[in-house]
Amino acid sequence: MEPQLIEQLVNVNLLSSYYMTKLVLPNMIKKKKGLILYTSSGVTSLKSCPLYTIYGSVKDAICSFANSLSVELKEYNIQVQCHVPLFIVTKLSKIKNPGIFVPTSDIYAKCAIQKMREVIFDIVTLEFLKIVKSKIVLKNLKSYGDTIIITGCTDGIGKSLTYSLINQNVNLLLISRNESELKNMKRDLLEKNKNYKGTIEYITFDYNANDFNTYKIIEAKIRSMDIGILINNVGVSYPYPLV
């Protein structure tokens, strides 16, 4: 495998999530609320994934990072979720046709947003024994903050999430490396959602960078924003299909 591909897999799939989290976390901790979502991969559920070793490793690292971070941030009322989609019809997966166990990205996005809205509270009742039950409450995503950041938003799951989240009437900050696609996407979103009351902004940025200093452009943009949710969706895979 070419060293450039290995570096790209690590930078885009792993380091980007670390760095984006570093940008939004201080303000979330300060206001004691927020939601951070990481998109992993179903390859992490396989015992082994020959020929996809690096990709599987970095996606597994994301799960581990999210699990530990959720414990650290619990006292600050910050929700951390790691979604692990299996096979989905996207350009990244190279799967073209949906099936019973292979949804489209639009169907997956609706399920993901439903999961994002779920907040689990522990209810303790004292009878003969202490019993801890869980109650799931659906939360308005806007209650986390005014703006949602979505990385890797112009294709696949990220695109479907964006088109679904606009119905929540929150401000959207879209980040992708292709400026023309971002412009077209913003125009299309506004044309199809005339009653949308939020704002849509975008940043052109290539996540294939391993230097945190390159993220200063994003830091400057979000400094005055009330970021409520960060969706780390950007990702790259190998140039050949898994299945």
Automatic annotation (TrEMBL):
One of its GO terms (molecular function) is oxidoreductase activity. The keyword Oxidoreductase applies. Residues 126-197 form the Tyrosine specific protein phosphatases domain. Keywords: Oxidoreductase. The keyword Mitochondrion does not apply. Belongs to the short-chain dehydrogenases/reductases (SDR) family. PANTHER family: RH59310P. This is Tyrosine specific protein phosphatases domain-containing protein.
